[in-house]
Structure formats: structure tokens, C-alpha cells
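lol ok so funny story. i was supposed to be doing the assay writeup but got distracted and ended up predicting the structure for this chain instead. priorities right. anyway since i did it might as well share w the group, maybe its usefull for someone
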Amino acid sequence: MDFRDELPVDHRLALVYRVGAGLCGVALLLFGCLGLADGLAFFSTTGEHVAGLSSNGLLSLISVATAVVGAVVGGNTASTINIVVGGLFVLSGFVNLALLDSGANVLAFRIPNVLFSFVMGLIIATFGMYGRVSAKLPLDNPYWRHRHPASVPPGTARALAPTPTRTGIPGPTL
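and the output, tada:
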């Protein structure tokens, strides 16, 4: 799917994706800035406590970078970005859980960090999937219309880009 063609630029779902990424980005930005302001050692495997979590300079920098990228990239692609970043947070939780108390724990994770990574990942991914993944999407939902082009009732929404058919010839614009 090409999301630039699928959703109108001002579709209301884009606001949900942007707000979700923004809220999570603010939390990450605050955590990262607090860590950087404390002047933490960059590659310390023990870390220092920042806002109830263990951190080092590298984790603080990654948190700030993730927040900034989430704020800069928005619009209709924010849904996909939220799903990917949420999955990466959950994956990071599993990887860092395996690396606890080892010399390879370069992000200075502790159990609260792992739990935070799981929870933040699920929240971010949920914001990304909102209005996109469900068995009962409304008929005016652009994702439902993209999956069921022949079933779209007339006059349900604004026009979308042509949908290619099996023959490769573009189908009618909805």
C-alpha cells in the first residue's frame, strides 16, 4: 500500500497518529534531555537513575533522536512509523532483557527499562494501528475502502487514487 495515495492529506486518522507519536515523543524527549543534562557516561553499562529508569549517554541520545524523528515525520505515514517504532521498542525490550547484567548491556537497561520498553512499544503500536486494524472498520474508513474497492457504497468519502486491477490497468477512482 502506498499511504500517500490512500488517505486524503487531511484525514482525521492522521491526527490520531500524530498525537499518539507526539505524546510518546514528549516522554522520550524529556527522559533523553534529563539524561543528557546529567552528563552521563556515554557507554556505561551500569547507568545512572533518570526519572526512575537507568540510563547512560547513549540511551539518552537514542531517546532524543527517536522523539525528534517522530515529531518531524508526520501525516499519513505516521501510522506505519508508529507500528514500526512500537515493534522496535518491544524487540528492544526482549533483546535488552537477554543482555541484563552482561558486558554487552551498552544501553544500561535494568528491569524497569525493559518493562518501560514493552509498555511504550505497545502504546506506540496501538496508536499506529488505530483505525487501521480491526474486523469492524466503518465503511468510510480509507483502509476498509482500499481492501474492498468493489463494495464501497456511493458517496461515502472523497476520491482516492486509482486502484490497479489484476490486469494491470488502473480501476475506477472511488
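The CA atoms of residues 45 and 103 lie 7 Å apart. The longest helix spans residues 12-37.
back to the writeup now i swear
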